């Protein structure tokens, strides 16, 4: 009779031990480190902060219509319009979209449009077609217009330029790189590259200062086909002294990839002078701040000097070229100093010209701070 009692005692002991283990686990769970929420706002779009729901659920809510924002009512618009993006800038909303009327059978791309709203999106002012000044009209497949992060009043557009009918490869060379057709469409009878356009927010004109290629197809046959070398939207910082952008390569090929490109910060273009020397004088301007900062580089034998002039071009006392020691080197943010120092605050708000005297040097940007 003693053995059943022993078994019962052992069983009870095991249950007690199990209860102790379960209690220990529960205690451990109760003492898990708390989530550090800080001052962050929590949205209930996931369960990351929810321990349990009892009689409640997570519920998805749908947006409601506030009516039509814009309609097709311009001659350059049509059934092939396509919405792209809406951004907020300086208290305005800017809506970028493609307008394509399909009226002209030769028009295979449409136009880029931007509408503006100053009342939070309730009403919109329709755009006028973007112009390109005196530059010859070219076919830009995508413009990728975006504010430059170090000068957001300047919008830069590394645009994909499509050269329809400009054939580089023959069928044999196209097959050699693995170029794939889509149905009856073949992709080696055209070529493309990228050019640099600029504009300002709300402007109706692009400035194409440079007709030359900004992003080249490069060596080999793979990028001398149709619809490749198209930049992505996004020019971003990439560490000290550099910025990065991305471009689609090897279109319609097994080797398709996105390439990362690096550039000097502010290095889209420069005022450049040879060893023999050159100079640039600005239009009259006013500024705020107390120092002049430049982004420049020189050769070992090169130099930069800066003169501040009155609107008529006469050098101001203490800020003549002779008062500016030669600047030699390669710097992203160099403060300019004259014999009396770097302080230019006394000139703030007054119209002046800047004269940059360069030898074997590039000037990428300047600002007052």
How many strand units? Answer: 15
Q: What is the overall silhouette?
A: globular
Distance between the termini: 97 Å
Strand count, sense and barrel status of the largest sheet are: 5 strands, antiparallel
Order of helices and strands: HEEEEEHEEEEEEEEEE
What are the low-pLDDT stretches, counting only 5+ consecutive residues below 50? 1-26
Descriptive labels:
mainly beta, Hypothetical Protein Tm1070, Chain: A, 369 residues, five-stranded antiparallel beta sheet, 2 helices, four-stranded antiparallel beta sheet
What does this structure look like?
With 369 residues, the protein is mainly beta. Among the domains are: 130-264, no CATH class; 271-368, Hypothetical Protein Tm1070, Chain: A (Sandwich), CATH 2.60.290. It has 2 helices and 15 strands. It has helices spanning 2-30, 171-176; strands at 82-89, 92-99, 111-117, 146-148, 151-163, 191-199, 230-231, 236-237, 242-249, 257-264, 271-273, 278-281, 292-309, 330-335, 353-368. Strands 11, 12, 13, 14 and 15 form a 5-stranded antiparallel sheet that branches. Strands 7, 8, 9 and 10 form a 4-stranded antiparallel sheet that branches. Strand 8 and strand 9 (242-249) form a beta hairpin. The termini are far apart. Mean pLDDT is 84; it is low at 1-26.
């Amino acid at each position: 009779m003693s053995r059943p009692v022993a078994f019962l005692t052992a069983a009870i002991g095991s249950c007690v031990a199990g209860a102790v283990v379960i209690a220990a686990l529960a205690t451990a769970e109760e003492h898990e480190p708390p989530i550090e929420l800080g001052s962050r706002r929590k949205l209930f779009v996931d369960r990351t902060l929810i321990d349990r729901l009892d009689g409640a659920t997570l519920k998805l809510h749908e947006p409601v219509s506030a009516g039509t924002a814009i309609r097709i009512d311009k001659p350059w618009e049509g059934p092939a319009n396509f919405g792209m993006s809406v951004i907020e800038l300086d208290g305005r909303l800017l809506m970028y979209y493609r307008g394509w009327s399909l009226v002209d059978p030769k028009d295979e791309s449409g136009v880029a449009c931007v509408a503006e709203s100053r009342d939070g999106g309730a009403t919109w002012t329709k755009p006028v077609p973007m112009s390109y000044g005196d530059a010859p009209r070219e076919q830009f497949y995508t413009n990728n217009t975006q504010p430059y992060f170090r000068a957001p009043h300047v919008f830069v557009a590394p645009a994909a330029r499509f050269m329809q009918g400009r054939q580089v490869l023959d069928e044999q060379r196209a097959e050699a790189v693995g170029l794939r057709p889509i149905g009856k469409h073949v992709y080696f009878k055209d070529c493309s590259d990228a050019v640099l356009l600029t504009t300002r927010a709300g402007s109706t004109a692009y400035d194409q200062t440079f007709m030359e290629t900004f992003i080249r197809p490069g060596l080999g046959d793979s990028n001398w086909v149709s619809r490749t070398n198209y930049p992505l939207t996004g020019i971003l910082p990439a560490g000290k002294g550099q910025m990065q952008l991305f471009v689609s390569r090897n279109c319609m090929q097994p080797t398709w990839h996105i390439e990362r490109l690096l550039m000097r910060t502010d290095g889209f273009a420069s005022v450049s002078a040879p060893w023999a020397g050159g100079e640039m004088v600005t239009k009259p301007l006013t500024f705020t701040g107390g120092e002049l900062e430049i982004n420049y580089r020189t050769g070992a034998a090169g130099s930069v000097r800066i003169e501040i002039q009155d609107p008529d071009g006469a050098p101001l006392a203490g800020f003549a070229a002779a008062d500016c020691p030669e600047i030699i080197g390669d710097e992203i943010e160099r403060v300019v100093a004259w014999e009396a120092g770097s302080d230019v605050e006394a000139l703030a708000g007054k119209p002046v010209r800047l004269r940059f005297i360069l030898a074997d040097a590039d000037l990428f940007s300047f600002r007052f701070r």
